[in-house]
Amino acid sequence: MSFIATPQSMQFDAPLPLQSGASIRGYTLAYETYGSLNAAKSNAVLVCHALNASHHVAGVYEGKDHSEGWWDNMIGPGKPLDTDRFFVIGVNNLGSCFGSTGPMHINPDTGAVYGADFPVVTVEDWVDAQARLLDALGIDTLAAVMGGSLGGMQAISWTLRYPSRVKHCVAVATAPNLTAENIAFNEVARRAIATDPDFHGGNFYQHGVIPKRGLRIARMVGHITYLSDDVMNEKFGRQLKNGIDLRYSTQEVEFQIESYLRYQGDKFAEYFDANTYLLITRALDYFDPAKAFGGDLSQALARATAKFLLVSFSTDWRFSPARSREVVKALLDNKHTVSYAEIDAPHGHDAFLLDDARYMNVVRTYFANVDREIAA
Amino acid sequence: MSFIATPQSMQFDAPLPLQSGASIRGYTLAYETYGSLNAAKSNAVLVCHALNASHHVAGVYEGKDHSEGWWDNMIGPGKPLDTDRFFVIGVNNLGSCFGSTGPMHINPDTGAVYGADFPVVTVEDWVDAQARLLDALGIDTLAAVMGGSLGGMQAISWTLRYPSRVKHCVAVATAPNLTAENIAFNEVARRAIATDPDFHGGNFYQHGVIPKRGLRIARMVGHITYLSDDVMNEKFGRQLKNGIDLRYSTQEVEFQIESYLRYQGDKFAEYFDANTYLLITRALDYFDPAKAFGGDLSQALARATAKFLLVSFSTDWRFSPARSREVVKALLDNKHTVSYAEIDAPHGHDAFLLDDARYMNVVRTYFANVDREIAA
Lengths: 376, 376
Prior knowledge:
Chain A has 376 residues and is of the alpha/beta class. Chain A is 34% helix and 14% strand. An eight-stranded mixed β-sheet of chain A has the order 1-4-8-5-9-10-11-12, sandwiched between helices. In chain A, strands 2-3 form a two-stranded antiparallel ribbon. The first copy, chain A, has a two-stranded parallel sheet with strand order 6-7. In chain A, helix 1 crosses helix 2 (150-161), helix 3 (180-194) runs antiparallel to helix 4 (212-226) and helix 4 (212-226) crosses helix 6. The interface between A and B is large, with 61 and 62 residues.
């Protein structure tokens, strides 16, 4: 049984300037905190979320079964990121659909639902919004910023936008930018959503419909890229849904893997917002700190002053170990302090959310050292 | 300039029993032949096609620009499969949309367009239909059967269903069955098509519409799996469509890779039949000669008497070299004669259709030996 978590929210009236040149005002950020901020305010850890997660990082909601936070195995009392030692903050990003202001909310400038007009937000914009939340919470410096996948990109971005405010960066299963193949998968998902007749150019809220067909396809594509070929073969292989006899049908479910993917797609389409999916995949596409330096990642990471832990997983083909090694190399080029663990795990990209003793121990040991640094 | 090819077709009145238990009668097969059958009828080579190809394997159509057959670099006078030496036959498979009977044609039993009622066909059914065509052409024994990808599966199936009728099997970039991940990608494509409101349960012909949205998504997903990550990065990388400035849009094209995929999807939706796509991906899913032998591929391949050449490509992640090696091992377990070439090529699965000197030379040398065998 985990501890009880309580969602909170904070309203921001001042406009936040965005990378696109637009700005957003009168927005809300949903967040949660676990543990206690120490008197020196030196034990805060910000945890950034990936594509379909939220500010509900750890703990459970009172009276709600199956409400564990998405990184509850990692964060809590006595866990690798120990909330008995650290004050942990989870924030839902702008444009998301779990409490912070997003496309389904009212644009204060027009009085109408944002819909397709919600401004395109970037990893850098999220980091800026998170920094304002920390300001409001009275936290100047983070003991660490941590995230996996897209969350790892935010963690890296923190060390570049606010170098003096971050002591440590823990970036798991992430990459310094997307490959063409990564962008390609995102684009398939976006096209599936945007060409669903129920999408209505992003203004489906007014039509009382949801582009579920597109969301299902988007989730199915995504899910394939989260798992390794090995784990899919082990879990599903060529198992048929109905014993050993083929049904000879192109539209009915025949193989277990089809059943699994359809289930994941159906579930996702029930709770995820279509515009949010477009926004978040675009933020992934855009992230590329080296771009301003002619593609030179070493130059891009020069301004970081944090110490780094990077973790990757051997079978992750979405953000392969080679991508983490690029970051490690660029940090070493700058003589920055970096630890790197490449975990031999079968689960593909999803491994960053799963229990693996070696992975958990690496993170536990790293934060124990951060804790000692704070005490020193 | 290639030679002139002339499409032909043959009508079959007798019902063809199918693996599903159904049968199909009064069907047509479109085919082409190149070169001359020798007096002993011992120099025939059947070439089987993959997902979106046809009987138009080589040559060009008279007066038609850009009408080269899909394997024109491989097959023709003086080419690796030399039509000055061999009589080459290309057949369009049942259920396809390029001339053989398919879902868009009239079911003689009902007088109505087949649509969703077109029977589910398997690799084995295609091989049986091809055997009947050879019967009609007066060809008892094939010097070789050859194919890439799904075509390679048909080539392998030939050696098991008609062992005495095949001397050589050339199977390129293929696999003894699909992995869970392969099936998963097929299922995403099928769901995109089948959930397109214009699909009408497969009976869209009567509605005068085409499920183009679904076909586009299906093709985009497929294309990603045909290319290697490396070649995608080399060809497109993170290049923007409009110079260096971001447009900050989730629906407009931003990256070159998006533009390429959309173009491929649009083109495909103009010419490919949606029901055919479902049928052909299902045939891929079902192919599994080891299934009847409790998954033991060595037992399954025991009955083959042909000699084999297998070719795989290092960066093919759709049908990886490991899958070809499974076939090679199972053949060796049976002390069958097998040659195997693993070509270090950057192009992914698509490599089997592209020019690569080492690949072309392997096939050229193999067929030169087959030719010597025939002459001996």
